[in-house]
Structures are given as C-alpha cells and as structure tokens.
Amino acid sequence: MSSSIHLDNLTKRYGSLTAVDGLSLDVAGGETYALLGPNGAGKTTTVEILEGLRAADSGTVEVLGLNPISDRTRLQRRIGVMLQEGGVYQGAKAREVLSLFTAYYPGAKSADDLLELVGLTEQAATLHRRLSGGEKQRLSLAMALVHSPELVFLDEPTAGMDPVARRTTWEIIESLQADGTTILLTTHFMDEAERLADRVGIVSHGRMVAEGSPTELIHARGDVSFTSSPDLPIQQLTEQIGIEVREVRTGFYVVTTDTPTPVLVAQITAWLAGHDALITELRVGAGGLEEVFLALTEENNR
Amino acid sequence: MIGRMLFEQARMELRLTLRRGEAVLLTLIVPVSLLLFFGATNLFDIELDFLVPGLLTLSVISSGLVALAIATGFERKYMVLKRLGATPLPRWVLFAGKLAATLFLEVLQLAIILGAARLALDYRPQMVWWALILGVVLGTCAFGGIAFLLSGTLRAEATLAVVNGLFVAFFGLGGVMFAIDNLPRPLAAMADILPASGLSETFRWATGYSDSVGHGLWVLIFWAVVAPLLAVRLFSWEEK
Hints:
The structure holds two protein chains of two kinds.
Chain A: E1 3-14, E2 17-28, E3 32-36, H1 43-50, E4 58-63, H2 72-76, E5 79-82, H3 94-102, H4 111-117, H5 133-144, E6 151-155, H6 163-178, E7 182-187, H7 190-196, E8 199-204, E9 207-212, H8 214-220, E10 224-227, H9 234-241, E11 245-249, E12 252-255, H10 262-274, E13 281-284, H11 289-301
Parallel strand pairs in A: 3-7, 3-8, 5-6, 6-7
Antiparallel strand pairs in A: 1-2, 1-4, 8-9, 10-12, 10-13, 11-12
Chain B: H1 2-19, H2 21-40, H3 48-77, H4 80-84, H5 91-121, H6 129-151, H7 156-173, H8 185-192, H9 195-206, H10 216-234
C-alpha cells in the first residue's frame, strides 16, 4: 500500500536554528500516527511543511502523492487542518465561520451538522472571541472536517480542554478512524497517544529518536525505574553498578539498560537501603509511554 | 465555485467590518458629521463645493486604508491568513474579497455623503460620474495597497498605530478640508505627492469644482500601481 505521507530526510532551518534535522517518516492510508516530543522538537514545523504552509529546505515531502507546495490547491481539497492555535476570525460567530468554510469545498457538510458533531450547537451564534479555550479547539476541529477529508492533521487537538471535552474529542477522532481517515496528530498527552495512535514517533531536536506502536515502544526497553527520595547522590550508584542512573523527574529515577538482571535490582535496592531511602515504586521495563518518552528525550538532550 | 468563494469572502469581510464599532464610527459617522458641521457653520469659511470632494477622499481613506489595514493586520496576528492558506481558497480570492467589501463600503459612504449634502445643504454639483468611479477605483488600489503593505509586514499593533497616524496626516495634508496651496511651502511640496492629495484633486474634478484635473491624477495612478506591487512583493502571511 502506498503511503499517505512520505517524508524522507526532511530538513528545515530558521536562521542558525535547525528545527527539523533529517526527519523521515511514512504514514500508511487509514493509519493514525502521533508525533510526540518536547516543545521546540520540530513537531509543528514538520506538520506545517506537510500541510503546505511552509517550504522544506531539503528532503522529500509527499502527501497523498502530491507536493504540498506545487500541488497546493489539489492537496488542500483532500486534507483537513487543525492549527495548534488561532486561525479564526475573532469577530465571527461559530456558525458563520463554518458556513464560510463550506464555500471552499465542493460537497461540504452543512454548518449545522458540523456544529452538532463537535457539540457546539448552543454556541452557534457566539462570537469566536467569547468561546472558551476548549470550545475554540472544537470549532477548529470542525473547520478541519468540513469536507470529510481523507487525511487530517491535528496539532495538539486537546490542548486546553477539560477532561469531558477531551473525551468527546477522542470519540470524534475515533469515529474518523472508523471511517478510514488517515490522521497525523501531535500531542503532549501520552494517554492520548496510547489511546489513539497506531504508531508513535518520538522526536527530539528535530530528529526521530524512536518509532513504533505504543506497545512496541513500551516493551522495547528493559529500564529499571524507581521512585524514592529526591536528590539522592546517584553518581555513587552509577559507579557501583556500572550503568548510568538518572533522576528524570524529581524523585523518579531511571537506570537505562536493555538487559535487566536480578543482581542489578538487588544492587539498586541495597544501595537505597544504605542511604535510608524508601522505594515507593520499582518497575522493570517501561510502565507506559510517558516513561519511554521521558527517558528517550532526556537521553537525547545530553 | 470561485464566484461563490468570492461572494462569501466579501460578505464575511463586510459583516466583520460593520461589527467593529470603531470602524463604523470612522468610515460611516465621522465623514458625514464633518460635512454637516462644517457645511452648516461658517467655521474656517470652507466652501461646500470644496468640502464635499475632500470628505469623499476622507471616506475612501477611512475604509480603504484604516479599516482594511487594521482588519488584515489582526487577521494575520491571529493566524487567520495562515489558516486560510490551508484551504483551497486561492490567495487572490482572499484579497479580491477584501477589496470587494471595501468597494461596497465606499459606495455606501459616497451615497451617504452625497445624499446628506444634497438633502441638508442643497449641494448640486456638476458630476462627472466616470471620473468619480475612476477616483474610487484608483483610490482603493492606492490605499488598499498601502493597507496590505503595512499589515503584511508590521505587527498588528504597529499597523494600527501607523494607519491612525496616516489618517491624521492625510486629513491635514491631503487637501481634504484645507487647500494644499495654503500650507507652508516645504509642507505643500510634500503634500503634493501624497495619494490623498491626488485623490482629492481627482474628486474635485469629478464633482465639477475644478474644470480639469492636474497632475494629481498622475500622483494617484503612481500610488495605485506602486503600493499594490510592493504589497505583493513584501506581504508575509504570519507575524515573525
């Protein structure tokens, strides 16, 4: 099957800053792919290049087999875009914005159906600037879905939403998946990626540091992680076990290894006992995507 | 498809402008208030036949420059222009929609000014209608070009400040209510090459105040060509 998105060795610089540094990825038709990474990792730049909003400095960019810059109009009829923020006339009412967008696409849904889809029927006559953050996000999502596009880009779709709105949004995304829509999303929420994505790419400093299904990523690592008192002198432990120990979050430590052994675990617990530090949690292997993410991005920062 | 896009785009632009109180005040209320005040009183001794075409110029500046630049600047700031770049809406239709809404507003302004002048002040000019239309079109190109040049290169807040400054400057130096000849010499020389004076001169010819148009028409044509060209070259879709 041909890829919906094909990126090969993409590079984008802003002055002396390299935002995207040789990134490659492929997204198959019907697949949901989540780009994860800290702020400034190059996620939004990558997405905006795919959307045709920015030009790449070098590398191959193909979206639905088209070049986003030279085939702009043809591509724009087939993709839906949700920007990370803004993008809507401040003084327009929710319904007016969607009505305007229906004029851009042949065979568009009706504005009322779209309002209902994202649960904004009651806000139809509310000015955009008076909508709450979560309502703005949902309107922005509706704007991406006006023409039932075959490929949708969602840049942090649930940022700023309360838990109920997040769940509603996830359900909308899941119904898109059920219809066979290809989705590229970026997010800071690991639960969102675990729930929605078929595959995840973790990006750091504009480079892909890991890629795979959430399950693969979680099981690929044999790290020993533990929670204990903050600010332990872990340099000593590193020297003792011969493997680097890092405090990736306050009181949360990771020992990066692919081959955890019973002896290693015993050494760690003994050392902690020697420092009168109580372990409140200890795990071998990553417990979730968040640990994988923190470990990988932190490693990449050094 | 293009026709419907253009219509909907222009309708949205016009609706948003008419929803902005300060835009309505500046475009629809200020010019006619000046007309009624200075037309009914003898303050500054301004002839009605001189005043009316000047206020037509002021109307075109208020909508074609001030209202348009502020709206576009803030749309750029709030990434509306960027978002529209990710739709099939051709860029030229976006700008054509803005200009169509501006022209519509200008026709409304001119009708109000000319109507109020006739009804309240018995203004009966010898109109050269095609010259009036020419003035409106060239004025919209000139001031619209400046509006896009500013809003597409400066931050929205800076655009707001600059266009308000230009409005005052054009009001004073653009032959709107005060003849350029009465200005001090160096100031008059500068005022002479402003798009506002070119438009005032064109409108004075179109309303029969002067028998012919001087080099003002050429000044206006110059701005109507150069400003849009510069805007097309320098406009960027996002604030840096």
